[in-house]
Amino acid sequence: MQIYLVGGAVRDALLQVPVYDRDWVVVGASQEQMLAQGFQQVGKDFPVFLHPDSKEEYALARTERKQGAGYHGFSVFAEPCVTLEEDLIRRDLTINAMARAQDGTIIDPYGGQVDLQNRILRHVSGAFSEDPLRVLRVARFAAKLAPFDFVLAEETKILMAQMVASGELAELTPERVWQEVVKVLGSAEPHRFFEVLDEVGALAVLFPELQALHGVTQPEKYHPEGDAWIHTLMVLQQATVLDVSLEVRFAALMHDLGKGVTPPELWPKHHGHEAAGVPLVKALCQRYRVPKKIEHFACKVTEYHGLIHNGLKEGAPFLKPKTYHKVLQNCGAYKDPQTFHKLLIVCQADARGRLGFEQIPYPQLVFWQQLLAAANQVDNQAIIAEGFTGKAIAEQIEKTRIENITKFIRG
Ligand SMILES: Nc1ccn([C@@H]2O[C@H](COP(=O)(O)OP(=O)(O)OP(=O)(O)O)[C@@H](O)[C@H]2O)c(=O)n1
């Protein structure tokens, strides 16, 4: 049997980026031989084994043919006669279809190294279209490899657009779509993923709420970058610079969905877009089974980002004390100040996600934190000692918080 390193590990090593996962292909072996050598079988649909020591994945070289719809429609052939070239040709991109032999030789029958040098994402063969997830994977690689400026080969773009147009994305389960989004939001330039989806028509199918932001005008003075879609991608970029967490980046992407449902006769204004966005965010999250915590955070950002910005206008407090308190309360700031801090980060990304505003200071961030600290100066024990009981304790705490806020904003 011959063993080769394949896929992403070969690609990433050639690009000189860290390799996290190593996948291996075994040529000329049977399942029985693998088991006899102590490998543990894990794949149900095709023969994949875990190495007895490293626990890395070793797959028998295989060919695959799609027979029907969905993920169960593959017929797999994984006998010892399957060659490495036959295994590599069923893979998605040329840059992912290279192997490295144990002596270090690179086996590259489909031009992966040239495409890697020329920074091109190109499908290997017609087999690409057998798996609709690959539309998302290519978009994800555009995001992941954005620091290297990879572009899509024209023929791959056309093929992806055809796959989308023929309705194949409907086969994707919500979990798989969300998994890709999670990986993308952890990458260097996640906005590239959504741009590529847009280029091949997949955005309209998977995220119609984002598609609806195209061409939605905004006041030019505050948004020289253009429409609400361009703004959204810029906010995502800024959020990616400011914070590594999934919830911050996802909320940045969601925060202005409400602008997509403003009646066009009201454009470029979007009064009330914050509240209008909440049901759209919820629907999208439910569609993709987004974890509740992430959905909840994205909804809070969507609903309150306007008030957070307006917390200071021209450097001065602008809202009523009760409103400040309500925002803090409804955003969960009293219970979970860390999450509230993240919400402020998304708002900062929103302010900076505009052409020419990328470096602006966002004094609201420190202001709201100081306001929260001031509001929190409540001695619960003293309130109880004063004789308050039951519901009256909570009312007294609230009253004290509002008094503290009032003192704070009056300076
Ligand atoms: N839908 C898929 C999934 C995987 N692959 C192939 O299987 C390899 C391993 O897949 P995976 O671990 O998902 O991706 P990586 O390429 O390793 O990249 P990353 O770990 O960065 O996602 C890929 O390189 C590719 O050759 C494929 O052709 N089509």
Automatic annotation (TrEMBL):
Boundaries of every HD domain copy: 228-334
Cofactor notes: Nickel for phosphatase activity. Magnesium is required for nucleotidyltransferase activity.
Cofactor(s) the protein requires to work: Ni(2+); Mg(2+)
Entry keyword annotation includes Ubl conjugation: no
PROSITE patterns: HD
GO BP term, pick one: tRNA 3'-terminal CCA addition
EC number: 2.7.7.72, 3.1.3.-, 3.1.4.-
Residues that, per the record, bind Mg(2+): D21, D23
Classification via InterPro entries: CCA_bact (IPR012006), HD/PDEase_dom (IPR003607), HD_domain (IPR006674), NT_sf (IPR043519), PolA_pol_head_dom (IPR002646), PolyA_RNA-bd (IPR032828), tRNA_CCA-adding_enzyme (IPR050124)
Highest taxon of the lineage: Bacteria
Binding site for CTP: G8, R11, R91, R137, R140
GO molecular function: ATP binding; CCA tRNA nucleotidyltransferase activity; cyclic-nucleotide phosphodiesterase activity; magnesium ion binding; phosphatase activity; tRNA binding
Catalyzed reactions: a tRNA with a 3' CCA end + 2 CTP + ATP = a tRNA with a 3' CCACCA end + 3 diphosphate; a tRNA precursor + 2 CTP + ATP = a tRNA with a 3' CCA end + 3 diphosphate
SUPFAM superfamilies named in the record: Nucleotidyltransferase (SSF81301), Poly A polymerase C-terminal region-like (SSF81891)
Pfam families in UniProt: HD, PolyA_pol, PolyA_pol_RNAbd
Record keywords, A-Z: ATP-binding, Hydrolase, Magnesium, Metal-binding, Multifunctional enzyme, Nickel, Nucleotide-binding, Nucleotidyltransferase, RNA repair, RNA-binding, Transferase, tRNA processing
Binding site for ATP: G8, R11, R91, R137, R140
Family, similarity comment: Belongs to the tRNA nucleotidyltransferase/poly(A) polymerase family. Bacterial CCA-adding enzyme type 1 subfamily.
NCBIfam families referenced in this protein's UniProt entry, alphabetically: PRK10885.1
Note: A single active site specifically recognizes both ATP and CTP and is responsible for their addition.
Domains as described in the record: Comprises two domains: an N-terminal domain containing the nucleotidyltransferase activity and a C-terminal HD domain associated with both phosphodiesterase and phosphatase activities.
Protein's job: Catalyzes the addition and repair of the essential 3'-terminal CCA sequence in tRNAs without using a nucleic acid template. Adds these three nucleotides in the order of C, C, and A to the tRNA nucleotide-73, using CTP and ATP as substrates and producing inorganic pyrophosphate. tRNA 3'-terminal CCA addition is required both for tRNA processing and repair. Also involved in tRNA surveillance by mediating tandem CCA addition to generate a CCACCA at the 3' terminus of unstable tRNAs. While stable tRNAs receive only 3'-terminal CCA, unstable tRNAs are marked with CCACCA and rapidly degraded.
Full protein name: Multifunctional CCA protein
Origin species: Thiosulfatimonas sediminis
